[in-house]
Amino acid sequence: MKLCAGWISAPIWDVLELAPSDYPAGLWPWRTCHVHYRGRAHAIDVKGWFIRRYELDDFLLRTSGASVHSGIAVKQVERDEDGFWTIGPLRARHLVGAAGTHCPVARLFAPARPMGPVGVQELELPLPPDAIARTRIGDNGEPELLLHDDLRGYAWNVPKSDWLNVGCGTLDPGEVRTAWAEARAHFERLGHLPAEASAPLDHVKGHSYYLFHPDHLDSAARVDADGKGGVYLAGDSLGLAQPLTAEGILPATLSGRLCAEAILGGDPASYPARLRAHPILDDYRRVFRARRRAG
Ligand SMILES: Cc1cc2nc3c(=O)[nH]c(=O)nc-3n(C[C@H](O)[C@H](O)[C@H](O)COP(=O)(O)OP(=O)(O)OC[C@H]3O[C@@H](n4cnc5c(N)ncnc54)[C@H](O)[C@@H]3O)c2cc1C
Which residue of 46, 53, 89, 262 has the fewest CB atoms within a 10 Å radius of its CB? Predict the structure, then answer.
């Protein structure tokens, strides 16, 4: 089961070479974000979209053109004497690890992790649309955020017609359970959680993942001397989420694309350089530095 609130930002459409109107599954555009911070409420103009993560992943898999072998849990990755990586019945010279935080291919690399992961708890649950409509504070799809007083995390409450996504994330995974209890109490106190959500929200699920650090890019690729094979990391397996917002769908999609372009272009060793040169990751580097300066 994949945890994700499903927020996507504008650059994703360029990475996917898709217009929002061409996306066939649930899409909730929004122009206002309702932010609570230190006891005050603000309505901020920001453009974004929400999707349901299962639907986006299913759409990407179906339209990628790849031959999909589903239902194989990769436990062991081996390499034969001809330089082919083997996973069960599959053999290839190029191996891309994209299995998230606990990716077995990343374990081969043991990539440098200069900072710990962030901790997250979340539930996306189906509810009657009228129950969601009664408790939401803005239009359908508009997120409600609670910024933690110390800015070490935030919680969200996102209505998606007949689904509600509620969760929170903290810089230190050890703080996430307390933060979740406070966030839930906050949304309940305001009357912004339908009564029907109460019992399911006792069962939020937890996860952790790594925000972008410039050093992570050093582990993006190990290419064979002949350039015809290698092993690569993309998305959360490399640790690319936006260093302030923790947005991870965009960098996962982008890195997958840049990796594929490097391999298909016959120059797999250029993958780390393509990552470093891309304006989105260049921006992440700037945000990372600004965050570090701000302490
Ligand atoms: C609670 C929560 C909310 C979030 N909300 C947002 C958000 O709103 N917007 C946003 O942009 N980002 C969000 N993120 C971050 C985002 O979900 C991740 O950064 C993003 O999913 C990374 O994509 P990925 O493809 O690298 O890894 P994943 O999405 O983790 O995908 C890895 C895939 O590999 C599979 N897999 C794992 N291990 C194995 C194995 N051994 N064998 C075979 N398959 C395996 C998994 O089943 C999974 O399908 C959120 C994260 C969490 C935890």
Answer: 89
The three-point CA angle 30-34-38 to 5° equals 160
Q: Which atom of ligand 1 is nearest to the CA of 241?
A: 19
What predicted TM-score, i.e. pTM, was given to this entire model?
0.96
Nearest CA to ligand 1 atom 36: 99
Please indicate whether residue 111, judged by its CB atom, sits closer than 6 Å to ligand 1: no
Q: How many CB atoms lie within 10 A of CB 230?
A: 22
Could you identify the atom of ligand 1 that is nearest to the CA of residue 238? 26
| Helix or strand run (H / E) with residue 110 | none
Residue where the block lists tokens 């898999």 = 61
Look up residue 130 and give its two tokens: 């009228």
Q: What do you get for the CA distance between the two ends of the chain, in Å?
A: 34
Task: Give the residue carrying structure tokens 């599954």.
Answer: 25
Is 4 near ligand 1, meaning CB less than 6 Å away? yes
Nearest atom, ligand 1, residue 249 CA: 11
Minimum CA distance residue for ligand 1 atom 19? 248
- Could you tell me if the CB of 15 is within 6 A of ligand 1? no
Contact present, 121 and 113 (Cβ < 8 Å): no
Per-residue model confidence as pLDDT tens digits over 173-219: 999 999 999 999 999 999 999 999 999 999 999 999 999 999 999 99
Distance CA 236, CA 247 (A): 11
Q: How far is CA 95 from the centre of its chain?
A: 21
Relative orientation angle of helices 279-294 and 249-264, to the nearest 10 degrees: 140
pLDDT class for 89, splitting at 50, 70, 90? confident
